[in-house]
Every structure is written in C-alpha cells, then in structure tokens.
Amino acid sequence: MNLYLRMLYLLIASVFKPRLSIHHPKNTLSLRVLPNDIDINRHMNNGRFLTICDLSRVDMFIRTGLAKTMMRENWMPVVAEQTMVYKRPLNLFQSYDIEMEITGWDEKTFHMTHTFIANSKASKGRILAQGTSKGCVLSKQGVIPPAEVIEKVQARLARRQA
Q1: pTM
Q2: What is the rounded distance in angstroms from the CA atom of residue 112 to the CA atom of residue 82?
Q3: Whole-Å CA distances, 6 to 9, 37, 58, 92
C-alpha cells in the first residue's frame, strides 16, 4: 500500500470526524505498520515516523477548519523544526495511535507534540516514540503570525455558523 492511499483515506475520514477547536487542539489517529513502513531491521523506519506526523497534522488542519482557511487565503503550512525520540520499535503490522497536540505558539510558529503509543494488548498505552515540532503558515508576503491564523479560522467558522 502506498502512502498516497493512506493520505486519501485520511482526507476522506477526517471530514467525518468531530470538529476540533483551533485553540490547543488534540487529535488521535489509529494506524498499523504496513510493509512499506519498515526498513531492513524489520521495524518502522525512523523517517516514516516523521511522515506519520505529517498525516496527523493534516487530520488536525481539516478538523479545526485550518485547511479551508489556508486554501481560501492561499497559505501554505511548513514544518520549521522537528525532533523525535525513539523509545521502542514499531514492528510489522503492529497497531498504534499517534496523538498530536498544539501546545502553544509564539510570534511565528505553532508548537506541537507527537506521541506514538502502542495499541496492542501486550503493550497497550506504552509510549514508543515522542517528538516535537514547530510549524508556521506562509503566504506570499511571508510568515503569518499564529494569532492571525487563529483569528481568521475563527472568523470563517463564525460566518459559516451565522
């Protein structure tokens, strides 16, 4: 299975999930390690963890309304920094959850945490990997301050509800 199929599934499924607040949102994706996720050591490749974090961000963009706002404003999300601490391997066909939360922001970037959690009976709840990232929203004029991004999302949602 190609990552594009996983992304397509996510784009469709996210539309039907409950909406999230733009203020400190937290989401969870339940996934399984697929054959194209593993490396020669027969566990999930370290780079795939970062790609899965991207999928989690897309889910959050859709569910908070940020995705529609970015499309209307012609904005683009960009990861500025990302780190990951690997604690235990994810093996082929193992199920896991990835929890993502926007924990705060500064004048330029949103601050996020990403936690990979075992979802199997034997090790349910065990943290497998944990990371942080900083991301920003860009326009042709440059970085859009997070406070302005949040304000635009809220204004668009308020107009839609009126």
Answers
A1: 0.91
A2: 9
A3: 5, 12, 12, 16
